[in-house]
Amino acid sequence: MNRRAKTLLVLALVVVVGMAFRVSWNALRDVARTIGADGAAATLYPFVVDGLMALALVATLVLTGDSRRFALRVLATYTLASLVLNYVHGLVPQLHRNADAWGRLADWGPANWALVLLATSLPVGSIYFGSDLVAKVLHHRPEPPIQPEEPAELVGNRSTPDLGESTPANTAQGFESPDVESAPTVEQRQESAPTVLVPVRSLAAAEPAPRRATGRVPSVARTPRLVRTADDLLSEARTATADWSDAALTGEAIRKAVRTSAANARALRDALRAERDADAPTAEAVS
Q: Which of 111, 138, 165 corresponds to the end of one domain?
């Protein structure tokens, strides 16, 4: 609904409420004169009853919690009281003809006493409940809007895999020197381990974040690298693949068994297959 439509709707509501107040004002004025109010008091009496209803309605839109429930009870009570007095005004014709003279609101004595008590107590109640509602509205502090929690920022620092090949160490054997992966250095472990940062609020409440290493690790603190020669790799490969079939003798299987680089594994595979091909005629001759 656009702004113009809302404005027209509010204006229509004001017109309807004004006409309804005019109808109720006639009945409440006659009731006030019947119970002994003078002309000025009888004219102001409808504003005491229906005016507090409007004030309670505004308070329900502003207040929250127990204060809002209190405003709703005041609104319901004065609405019911105004309905009863308008109903009595419609049942007693004498209120229309002799409204300026003091009279009775009902022929039955207890009913008349109850109606007079109701009509005379409404102004006093308006003073009390109206003051209380205004004080509650003035002292009301709206609750601050709930701020959405910031998502946890996860920052991971991961090392880039080294795709380069190692420098050849023994060209006579036809394969390169091995890269030992079984004993990574301290620097490699620090760089490869992902760092996960917890949310800022939890971090400040728990403990400070560990400080990362900012420089190179001294040579004294580094783990010594175990260097295997080409003969050592070939010997380990023979032992690991002694009971393997020719189909199982692949570079990937040798790389996992000996724990070496892919290039060295392919060289070991070719060397082992050459040895098996060379041993095959000998085995046939013996058989």
A: 138
27 domain-assigned: yes
Q: What is the pLDDT of residues 10-38, one digit of tens each?
A: 888 888 888 888 888 888 998 988 888 88
The string of pLDDT tens digits covering residues 127-140 is 999 999 999 999 88
Q: What is the reported pTM?
A: 0.48
Segment 236-261 mean pLDDT: 85
Q: Three-state SS string across the chain, please?
A: CCHHHHHHHHHHHHHHHHHHHHHHHHHHHHHHHHCCCCHHHHHHHHHHHHHHHHHHHHHHHHCCHHHHHHHHHHHHHHHHHHHHHHHHHHHCCHHHHCCCCCCCCCCCHHHHHHHHHHHHHHHHHHHHHHHHHHHHHHCCCCCCCCCCCCCCCCCCCCCCCCCCCCCCCECCCCECCCCCCCCCCHHHHHHHCCCCCCCHHHHHHHCCCCCCCCCCCCHHHCCCCCCCCHHHHHHHHHHHCCCCCCCCCCHHHHHHHHCCCHHHHHHHHHHHHHHHHHHHHHHHHHC
**Structural domain that includes position 99:** 3-138
Asked whether residue 77 is assigned to any structural domain, the reply reads yes
Asked if residue 20 belongs to a domain, the reply is yes
